[in-house]
Amino acid sequence: MAVLPVLTWGDPRLKKNSEDVGAWTPELEQLVADLFETSLHEEGVGLAAPQVGVNLNLAVIDCSCGEDPEQKLVLINPEITKEEGSQVGPEGCLSIPGIREVLERPQKVTLRNRTRDGAWEEQIGEDLKARAFCHEIDHLRGRLFVEYFGPVKRQILQKKYLKQARG
Ligand code: NI
Hints:
By secondary structure, the protein is of the alpha+beta class.
């Protein structure tokens, strides 16, 4: 396993649409292991393949931050099929270190997700997990969470982010 470099806000590769994962391979298994390792290292609850420069519809989620192996979840070609309720809370992104902002998301999200062997399964997330589903799937569509804000707020956040990034 390896900690991979994570692309940051402003990198054009984060804005690309991703392609569906095809047949499962040992290379993909390695990528999944590396995504978990990188997410854990950065104390995140999830990481999407495009964030490490791989434009595939693949992401990992672990809302326990490494505490509970049962909570490790691999999203493969996921699609949201149902959104219910709403939650308002802080959100951050490993590609935008140092920035956390309040964002409204659905309280409960149902996904159609592929398994490694090519079958389809349903995944349901509530609260933090629902937020992670939305956040990671946005990455697969080339969208960062800060893009939900208007241009003025986005500019303020970008200044704050750049200032921090420079140290
Ligand atoms: Ni993110």
